Write a sequence for this structure.
């Protein structure tokens, strides 16, 4: 791993395995220090492709090294509207398949925003309140979308946005089309933690891999801070770890901003 300065921010750069190890080390230290104090560790977790090698490493540490998740409370960033928990593409189902089914977390401590609801505002407010009641998020994991979303805070999301129902950007729908077997099957709306909800986390770790993320990572780290690239708001947080693979970290000189 090496440190690379991009704009005002510093990234840890390595290959996929090194990134997973480094982030798993950080998370393990948090979980175990909390356990030693008899306290819960409140995590904010992400779905998508980026964290899969990290989740595989956490499962391995649980299986081979006894890393326990008994004192973990987890809140996921977002959930598609209308799929329901049984749908294999729901973030609920993905999180169980890729992590929770394989570790010893108490199912009562797993929270993902609701997918089916009558009143979106009430559903979103309820989820925000649940996070608040848990004492806020200690450690938030993020990926980054092709146009700079964090959670499903698409372009145009305000720094003060809270947990709410959002319309997915066309780019987000296109990116998801393959896994849904066509754009027409991708939900058009979701509930997401807001930018402010995310920024309230005491520690944030953003992971990005692959050349497709290169330009947007650069704009998030070194570009103007604002709603045009919601991930740029992270520059103002003060405790963000940027974990990038070599492809995502190469800063293209010809990027606007
Ligand atoms: C997922 C989420 C999204 C993804 C982002 C990157 O819960 O909130 O912001 O982190 O779209 O997705 P991948 O990792 O699939 O490139």
């Amino acid at each position: 791993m090496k440190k690379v300065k991009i704009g005002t921010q510093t990234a840890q750069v390595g290959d996929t395995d090194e990134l997973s190890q480094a982030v798993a080390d950080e998370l393990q230290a948090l979980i175990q220090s909390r356990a030693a104090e008899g306290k819960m560790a409140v995590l904010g977790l992400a779905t998508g492709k980026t964290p899969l090698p990290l989740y595989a490493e956490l499962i391995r540490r649980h299986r081979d090294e006894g890393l326990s998740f008994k004192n973990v409370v987890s809140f996921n960033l977002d959930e598609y509207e209308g799929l329901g928990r049984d749908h294999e593409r729901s973030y609920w189902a993905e999180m169980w398949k890729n992590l929770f089914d394989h570790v010893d977390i108490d199912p009562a401590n797993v929270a993902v925003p609701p997918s089916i609801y009558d009143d979106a505002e009430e559903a979103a407010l309820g989820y925000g309140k649940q996070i608040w009641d848990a004492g806020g998020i200690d450690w938030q994991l993020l990926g980054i979308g092709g146009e700079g979303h964090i959670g499903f805070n698409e372009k145009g999301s305000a720094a003060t946005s809270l947990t709410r129902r959002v319309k997915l950007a066309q780019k987000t729908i296109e990116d998801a089309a393959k896994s849904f077997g066509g754009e027409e099957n991708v939900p058009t709306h979701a509930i997401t933690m807001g930018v402010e909800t995310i920024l309230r986390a005491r520690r944030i770790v953003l992971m990005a891999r692959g050349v497709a993320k290169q330009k947007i990572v650069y704009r998030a780290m070194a570009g103007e801070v604002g709603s045009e690239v919601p991930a740029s708001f992270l520059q103002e947080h003060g405790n963000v770890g940027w974990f990038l693979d070599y492809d995502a970290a190469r800063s293209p000189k010809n990027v606007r901003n």
Observations:
- Residues 21 and 81 are 33 Å apart (CA to CA).
- The chain has a mean pLDDT of 96.
- The pocket of fructose -6-phosphate is lined by residues 46-50, 77-78, 143-145, 149-152 (CB under 6 Å).
- DSSP finds eight helices and eleven strands in the chain.
